[in-house]
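so my prof wants the structure for this chain in the tokens format not the other one, which i didnt know existed until like an hour ago. anyway here's the sequence
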Amino acid sequence: MGHIRLGSLPKTRKWNEIVEHVAGTLLTGYVVPTAAVHIDTIAAQTLDAARAGLSKAAHDPGVRYTFYLLTQVALASRSSNWEGALAQHGIHLSGDSTVFDLTVEVQSAIDRYLSKRSSGATDLSEMAQQSAGEALLSLLGTRTVSLFGGSIADVRNAVRSFSTTKGFGQLGQRFFGRFIARFLNFYLSRVTAATLGSPRLRDVGDVVQFNEVLRAHCDQSALIVRDFCGEWYSKTEYQKGIDLRNTSRFLAVAVKKVRSELAHQGTEL
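here's what i got, hopefully its the right format
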């Protein structure tokens, strides 16, 4: 487990083409006269900055706890007392709770955990927290009739699909994909501002379209950890149970894989 190489990963677009949306060619097709070398430089600088920042993620208490909480939500769905299992982690649901309610409770549980730590929330932990929320909403939304309707039984059945090797692999991939997207977007905005003076997205529609392209690219980039997440989840729970300590060790390796994938993309520029 953890030593399988997937080869060249399929990408919706090459990374420098995505950067071009911000630094050069607008999404609507209007071309800003920016030299190609600028695009390549910005793309490379963004990946370098993101890789450096990601090296800190595995040691961030908020990032660790956020991923650990995702494992516990998945495990709770197999408990005979689903609500009680969630309550042990500060997640409180009622009989008419929805997917949206579950996501809000997960976010609140993370907030409470971080409020008790002297370091508090960090940029990294906030990115992880938001990524966990997006992962849950986006995946559970396809498994239930509505994000805002249904019953707690519907929510539990949907979450239970995450408690298998394949299901948790999908959840892990989505979490890391959204985490990478937030990371790259954060650094890309800084690099383009420093290099070009201003972003090249003209209106909200352009921003939304760019974010969709970036998310799709990063979801595919996170394929590198999909099977790794699922196999670790099933094997660890079966052999000794999942806790915050072994989750933290796993996260360090998973982040390393993600950083390696970003490095690989950098060589393709």
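also thought this was worth mentioning. The chain has eleven helices and no strands.
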